[in-house]
Design a protein that fits this description.
The chain is 41% helix and 15% strand. It is of the alpha/beta class. α2 runs antiparallel to α11, α7 runs parallel beside α8 and α10 runs antiparallel to α11. The structure holds zinc ion.
């Protein structure tokens, strides 16, 4: 039995968020259903941002209403503020992923709030949470670098991590939102984070903007992290890096891990089909290499 690595599929949210081609609710539901059939157990399916600001994320309530609770499936909603939390609870998401930006520059542009204000918002959300409400993950975005402020000091990331750990969130994640991390930096940040969070699970979120995404994932796994985000087809982009590729591709990550003997819950062949199909929906060739090249050994 290989070590199990949990991959959280973020294609329907992060993957589509920056695509110019808008998918309708039915197309998104088909994508979610196909990904669950291919083995996705946890999936970020919606974002409770203002659809006027991010039109690609419109229809969050409709999507959740069409996804009845299913044992062994977790549908995650992205939450940027108290209003988003209320919508996430109302829509009966299985989990909430609350984002705190590690830099004020990114926080103010992305969420209209400084880091300190976002930590305060997280504390209010945790305080308001009833036992029947979704468990809360906290993701530190731009945890490895900011497009406006440049380097993000480790101490700044750890301050947020410490606050979230004290609030006893269910999971903590570090996100390389703009794809600037290197594998050695990942190792150092993972080690420093783990010292502060005790038993709280740690998740990592990488973008392949500068071709270091899989190397960063490798570094995270080597440093003991068992939970990684990925997006089918490598879908996604970054509004602050034109022509950038998206998240690390789920099929690339599954291929790398399973080739090395790790266990994931995914069917690689099905992922490759979805990677090609979903990329086609947004008018692109898949960014994920394995959706172009196929797996190995080749299936007869
Ligand atoms: Zn992202």
């Amino acid at each position: 039995m290989g070590r199990k690595i949990q991959i959280v599929e973020v294609g329907p949210r992060d993957g589509l968020q920056n695509e110019k081609t808008l998918l309708d609710v039915d197309q998104k539901l088909e994508m979610i259903a196909r990904l669950e059939a291919a083995g996705a157990r946890r999936m970020e399916v919606v974002s409770f941002v203002n659809p006027k600001r991010v039109p690609q994320m419109a229809g969050a309530e409709e999507i959740m209403a069409a996804l009845p609770h299913a044992e062994g499936r977790s549908r995650i909603g992205l939450v940027l503020n108290a209003r988003g939390w209320d919508r996430c609870v109302e829509a009966r998401c299985d989990e909430a992923n609350v984002v705190v930006c590690a830099s004020d520059g990114f926080g103010i542009r992305n969420q209209g709030a400084s880091t300190a204000e976002q930590v305060e918002a997280l504390a209010s959300i945790v305080a308001a949470r009833k036992p029947t409400d979704p468990p809360i993950s906290m993701t530190v975005s731009v945890a490895f670098g900011c497009p406006f402020e440049g380097e993000v000091p480790e101490a700044r990331v750890l301050e947020i991590v410490k606050a979230a750990a004290e609030l006893k969130v269910a999971e903590i994640a570090l996100a390389d939102t703009i794809g600037v991390a290197d594998p050695w930096l990942v190792r150092r940040r993972v080690e420093a984070t783990r010292k502060l969070i005790g038993d709280i699970p740690l998740r990592l979120h990488f973008h392949d903007t500068r071709n270091t995404g899989l190397a960063n994932a490798f570094a995270g796994v080597e440093a003991g992290v068992d939970i990684l985000d990925a997006s089918v087809g490598g879908l996604g982009g970054c509004p602050f890096a034109p022509n950038a590729t998206g998240n690390i591709g789920t099929e690339d990550l599954v291929y790398m891990l399973e080739r090395a003997g790790f266990e994931t819950t995914y069917d690689l062949g099905a992922l490759i089909e979805i990677g090609n199909w979903a990329s086609g929906l947004v008018g692109k060739a898949p960014a994920a290499s394995v959706s172009r090249a196929g797996g190995f050994p080749l299936q007869a």
